[in-house]
Design a protein that fits this description.
Layout: H1 10-35, H2 40-52, H3 55-80, H4 88-106, H5 112-141, H6 145-167, H7 191-195, H8 209-226, H9 228-238, H10 240-245, H11 250-267, H12 270-277, H13 288-298, H14 303-326, H15 332-348, H16 354-364
Length: 379
């Protein structure tokens, strides 16, 4: 007998189902590769080899993953409160302004290890502020968080274009970007860690913000599952009516959660600006806020799942670049299709295989899905 509402074991819920969805996504992507006349097995080998086969590829994969960890955590925290933050893109964009102000002010006078904490605080504060306004509008005025955060993405982009084309652009420069940060605002690379294992890295932007992303993932886990605030966030996300009955302030919990979400998304700006480009340029976010939605969905809004999903999307970005180079018939647009398939099966079709898996677990191990074993007939 199938049990569509039975609870699966945690390892199946957070591991098996996403893995099956991922395998199906890549299977469908294989048919797409076949349609353009290429060998899908060779394409998969190039994809993995390009991302993890050499030290250079690993460093780039982790660099991309760093960005997606921040944006994935941003979306995940909001999801636990029943909020869908579509504005991580804009929050990260505005956070770049905070990073720029700190770096342009202190890069000539402070070492990086003093500039970096100030930039973290600035990025988090600016990102939190940009999330505060839609949060207040939802909590006090009933405006839907999805609509307001989407609109604020466009406002953030317009503000940053204005600033980078005029106010922050150095005199005599034609490029819409700030000046290059001096050494005091350039983050040290972590390529030497990969080289400890015998792999060679010629030049890659993997930097110390990767460690910050891992720390934020751990702190997010502590917040959500080991603090009173996290319990209130999950309670409101599960049932706003029950939360109100328990005396949890709806306004407070929405505002605080969205500000934490915005702060995490804002920290994403540190990776490309201080760790790679060493300036703030137009479109430095490059869609990472929207990828964060897919990362949170794929990772089931759990920090560990977010980290693993971020590495997966880092693999798709880095391995996809190698694949487009090795197989000219597979363009960058084809890589976007593969990414879209992963998002489709990990998000929109996430529950497609769940009833069958639950029925299978109920047949072989009723206790694993919370069912009492059936008593023998005629007993």
């Amino acid at each position: 007998m199938s049990t569509p509402y039975a609870k699966l074991p945690a390892w199946a819920d957070y591991g098996l189902i996403p893995l099956i969805n991922l395998l199906v996504a890549f299977l469908v992507a294989g048919f797409v590769v076949l349609l353009v006349g290429e060998n899908p097995l060779r394409a998969a080998a190039i994809l993995v080899e390009g991302a993890f086969g050499r030290g250079q590829g690993i460093a780039f994969t982790l660099y991309y993953a760093t960005t997606f960890i921040f944006t994935g955590l941003s979306v995940a925290v909001a999801v636990h409160c029943g909020l869908f933050n579509i504005g991580t893109e804009g929050q990260a964009y505005i956070a770049g302004l905070g990073v720029a102000l700190v770096c342009l002010t202190f890069d000539a006078t402070l070492p990086w290890w003093l500039t970096f904490p100030l930039a973290i605080l600035a990025a988090a504060a600016f990102g939190a502020f940009w999330a505060l306004i839609p949060a207040y509008l939802q909590a006090k005025r009933g405006s839907h968080i999805v609509i307001t955060t989407i609109m604020f993405n466009f406002i953030a982009a317009s503000i940053m274009v204005y600033l980078l084309v005029g106010v922050l652009k150095p005199a005599g420069s034609m490029a819409p970007q700030t000046r290059i940060f001096l050494e005091g605002a350039q983050l040290p690379k972590l390529n030497w860690i990969i080289e400890l294992f015998g792999a060679r890295v010629r030049s890659a932007p993997l930097n110390i913000s990767f460690l910050l992303a891992l720390v934020m993932a751990f702190l997010t886990w502590v917040l959500i599952w080991r603090t009173r605030l996290g319990y209130e966030i999950r309670t409101y996300g599960f049932s706003p009516k029950a939360a109100r009955y328990a005396g949890i302030s709806e306004t407070r919990i929405i505002v605080i959660t969205m500000m934490i979400s915005g702060a995490l998304g804002g920290m994403m700006a540190l990776n490309p600006t201080m760790g790679d480009q060493h300036n703030v340029a137009i479109d430095f976010v490059a869609g990472a806020g929207f990828v964060g939605i897919a990362v949170a969905l794929m990772g089931r809004s759990h920090p560990l799942g977010v980290v693993l999903a971020a590495i997966l999307f880092g693999m798709l970005y880095q391995g996809g670049a190698e694949l487009a180079f090795e197989m000219p018939a597979i363009s960058r647009d084809m890589i976007v299709i593969i990414q879209g398939l992963v998002i489709l099966f990990a998000g929109a079709l996430e529950h497609m295989f769940r009833p069958s898996i639950q029925a299978l677990f109920a047949s072989f191990s009723p206790r694993s899905v919370g069912m009492a074993p059936a008593k023998g007939k005629g007993a």
